[in-house]
Amino acid sequence: MPNVSSYPIANDWFSISRVDDTTDMLLEPHVHVLEQANMFFVRGSERDMIIDTGMGIVPIAPYVDPLSAKPHSEIICVSTHTHIDHIGGVHEFDTRLVHPIEADEMASPSIMSTIIRDEIDPVLLELFASSGYPPLDELLISALPYEGYEPASYTLKGAPATGLLEEGDTVDLGDRQFTVLHVPGHSPGSIALFEEKTGILFAGDAIYDGPLIYDGPGMSVDDYVVTMKKLQALDVTIVHGGHDPSFDRKRLNKIVEKYFRIWGV
After folding, report:
1. pTM beyond 0.85
2. For a FRET experiment, which of 126, 145, 228, 240 has its CA 20 to 30 Å from that of 6?
3. Residue pLDDT, tens place only, 138-170
4. Edge-to-edge strand list for the sheet holding 48-51
5. Among 209, 204, 222, which Cα is nearest to 253's?
């Protein structure tokens, strides 16, 4: 097992930054960039929403709840898909929404459930490396969340969905409505949320400004091409991806064009 005695202790596991007047972004800065997902907390007049919940190494609710003026029970948790870095804290919320294709995986995660490199399927390790990510150290974390933490104790709990989101559905926060887009490619049940009146797109891992992973289990380049064309057709002003910095429509088109060249489209 990895020797954790040399690992520092993190003062705060999550960082929180302001995106705009109604939105904050949470990040796990001590998680390897490969699994360092962007999580977005969006405030509405009637309900608030957390989009994705990280790795689940420590509880996320104590960081999310102070961002809301509403009771914890009124926060909607939307999972854009069910990879390890997006559903770690889903069990902490009463309302849990996901695409039906990935509901079983959210209830009982099976693809990857460890933060120890040597326990990860070698096929996945090769996929990560070939996609352009830096090599993994012995752990997927660079610090411990607290004194005495044992990486081998990590488990990805998951939780059953309390509701399902399909293409064309709406996540209604009162004064804000987000249309659900089914955007497979990175995973079969990936979804994005688009607010038409502002042009804001929460894209999950359908697109982000970093190395996209598109050739692993449950992934499909053919589906990804359809998804990319769907995203290009949107009147987008800003894209908040599941990883890396946010970007505008011009950058979205450049990212799409790059992968179309790679895929020979």
Report:
1. yes
2. 126
3. 999 999 999 999 999 999 999 999 999 999 999
4. 15-20, 23-27, 39-43, 48-51, 75-78, 95-98, 163-164
5. 209
